[in-house]
Amino acid sequence: MADKRTFGSPILVQALDKLFGSEHEKESITLRESHDVSQFLKEKENWEKKSSEAQILFK
Amino acid sequence: MEELKTQGCLGNPEILDVRPPFSNFDFVEDRFGGECVPIRRIFSQARMGGFSTLVIEEIPSVGLSKEDDTDLIEAGLKPINRPLYRLTFFKSIFANAVDIQNQSNEDFLGYAILKAVPTGNRFRWIVFESVTNPARHDNNFYHATREYKVSSHNKIFSIKGNIYCQQNDLTNVCAHVALRTCISMVEGFNDFSYREMNRILKAKGFPHGVGEPLSIVQIKTVLDSLGIKYSDQWYPLTGEQPNVPFQKYLYASVESGYPALLGFTFGGASGHIIPVIGHTFNEDTWVPNAETSYFTIGKDTRYVPSELWVSSYICHDDNFGSHFCLPRQYMSKNSELFVIAIKPKQVKYDAINAEAIAVDYLYSIAVNMIPNEVNRWLRRLREAILIKSGWVVLRTIFMSGKEYIDHLRGSKGWQDEIIDPKVLDVLENGLKGYYWVVEISLPELFPANRRKLGEIVLNAEVELSKELDLSTYVLARLPGQFYFFGLDENSKIFVQKRDCGIKTHSRVFSE
User: Fold this and answer.
1) ipTM over 0.90
2) Does domain B168-288+312-345 have CATH number 3.90.70.10?
3) Whole-angstrom distance between the N-terminal and C-terminal Cα of chain B?
4) What does the pLDDT look like over B195-213, one tens digit per residue?
5) SS3 label, residue B484
6) B288: CB partners within 8 A, 6+ apart
7) What is the value of pTM for the model shown?
8) With contact defined as beta carbons under 8 Å apart, do B160 and B146 qualify?
9) CA-CA distance, B197 to B195, in Å (whole number)?
10) How far apart, in whole angstroms, are the C-alpha atoms of residue B29 and residue B26?
């Protein structure tokens, strides 16, 4: 999990609290547990590494 | 360095009335022979732009052309001892050189500089460089044009576009000229010489031999040496293919104002590579069914990419000329492809990754929305994501915090509602870096009037961790509300919503 100081937008939230008050409700949010995106990114990265095998010459 | 574009001419210019019955074909054939196809293409473009007057000037070999000559001499070849021709195209009608002073930028359609280069024991003409006005169709989009100053008989005109150039097939080949176009489109570079490319290659241990093709390693070496960032992907002729189609790499670059290189071979000994500089947009694109519209990230995650409405990519091809439309599906089969997608120097991950991460956030936010949401656009968005399984359009653009806030300041909802300027002031103070702004729309809304429901903003300047930890998230703006994430004292994630002002849809970003 990311560092609390940098996670999300703490600076923006603090600045908005200062301007409008901090009574805005903080709702808990459940992030979905799908690993689709992390798997997609890993696969994409692997394919990009594999691109170094290409031997095409351009003229 | 002296520039060919602004170099004073030798002697007096020749001025021709090129309105019908003047024949472009006859002129090109008589003056430059029939070998140079790109010259014909450029004349055709000038004709389509409505040119009436052609100014022909002889200019000395200076600047990049002189460097080219030096390259030839060092390679044991003899440059052709002839002046270059600078051709400038005008919509307006005039007959005398003094009248050039009275022409305006609105009259000016562009220029081409023609150079004689050696081939065997004779010579041939090439388009050493050219910039022509590409804005012929409303639905052709170029997001990274540069403004060039060009002299026509000592009067300076401006033209916006992207440099087209043609190889001499000796000290530079198609990859050199494609690189020149691409590099000239990256901020900090106005133009870049072939000699400098060859110097880099030699210094890095990959020298370019006369008439030899360039390898992928050599192309990447030039870009790396200049600190130009890119994503690259290979599509073999046979076998398993990458999980991201090549069109997405092209789109990721051109939509954010960067070029891409598209290399292809149809199985021969060497391939060809061209710069991709823009795209078309067809709001009436027919999609046979919903399934083929989705880009699937995984079994539970999909969306409709805005690239779906691109029907062609706009490219230069040094063999044929400038501003051609390459149908997006044309290259898919029977060709081995290689894509180098240039990306902004500030980013730590590319637009494709940004879009995938944004869709993850969007699904998470949607899951937490209430089904009977009062805001009808928010309810429609939730249904599009959860019930219609990702029937949302995403469009990802790179921009600075200031550009994003300026865009929001100019945004209005369908009922003319705006965002509170005080909120925007706060956001402006907090958003000082560079961001991926992932615009969110619906397939029925986006192409019709280019409007959107909001966007997810990601910090483009932080590294992605191996496990997605949401550290790139900055904010989401959806109908009626901003969504900020945070961690509470127990390290539990919370969302804090703030009134957004715009409760409906607003225009997508455009420069």
Assistant:
1) yes
2) yes
3) 31
4) 999 999 999 999 999 999 9
5) strand
6) none
7) 0.95
8) yes
9) 5
10) 5
d(CA A17, CA A21): 5
Q: Which of B208, B243, B497 is the mutation pick for testing A, counting most A CBs within 10 A?
A: B243
Q: In Å, how far is B294's CA from the nearest CA of chain A?
A: 15
Whole-number pLDDT of residue A8: 65
Q: Do B488 and A51 touch (CB under 8 A)?
A: no
Q: Which two tokens stand for residue B407?
A: 């865009």
Domain segments of chain B as ranges:
1-139+147-161, 168-288+312-345, 351-507
Judge whether A9 is closer than 8 Å to chain B, CB to CB.
yes
Q: Which of B178, B299, B473 sits opposite A8 (nearest CB)?
A: B473
Chain B nearest C-alpha distance from A21 (Å): 11
Which among B182, B169, B48 has a CA at the least distance from the CA of B115? B169
Radius of gyration of chain A (CA): 21
Q: How far is A28 from chain B (nearest CA, A)?
A: 4
Interface check for A43 against chain B (CB to CB < 8 A): the answer is yes
The residue type of B46 is A
- For A24-54, what is each residue's pLDDT tens digit? 678 888 888 889 999 999 999 999 999 999 9
Q: Which of B219, B364, B498 sits opposite A32 (nearest CB)?
A: B364
A42, A50, A59, best to mutate vs chain B, most B CBs in 10 Å: A59
The mean per-residue pLDDT over the stretch B229-248 comes to 95
Q: Positive or negative CA dihedral for B21, B24, B25, B26? A: positive
Handedness of CA B138, B142, B143, B149 (dihedral sign): negative
Question: How many other CB atoms are found less than 10 A from the CB of residue B126?
Answer: 24
Beta strands B481-487 and B260-265, pairing class: unpaired
CB pair distance less than 8 Å for B496 and A13: yes
